[in-house]
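ok trying again, last paste got cut off:
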Amino acid sequence: QVQLVESGGGLVQAGGSLRLSCAASGRTFRNRAMGWFRQALGKEREFVADISWSGGITYYADSVKGRFTISRDNAKRTVYLQMNSLKPEDTAVYYCAAAPGTSRIQGEYDYWGQGTQVTVSS
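nice, full thing came through this time. structure:
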């Protein structure tokens, strides 16, 4: 059983940076891959990035490669999403999620946070 709570969302101008955090409860956190998804108004939820339980494997959606960085600190039971060079199209509710292994498929994530709003102004 894992409980996830996102934080760090807010309003930022285009070109700016924001760092999202996802705090996880439960001792099983170290054994789970973690992912970030986002959903913009009127759009379907989409994959952003994920990271293996050890942190050794990461994957990014093409739309955020080179701009976003996913990382995790298992001792703190927290996963991060550093977002740089933000664009208006990055505006969305961002969700963190946990899965048995790395995946870009939403259905493979069995625990989800409540989401945090990120708004990028032009």
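cool. The mean pLDDT is 94. The longest strand covers residues 92-99.
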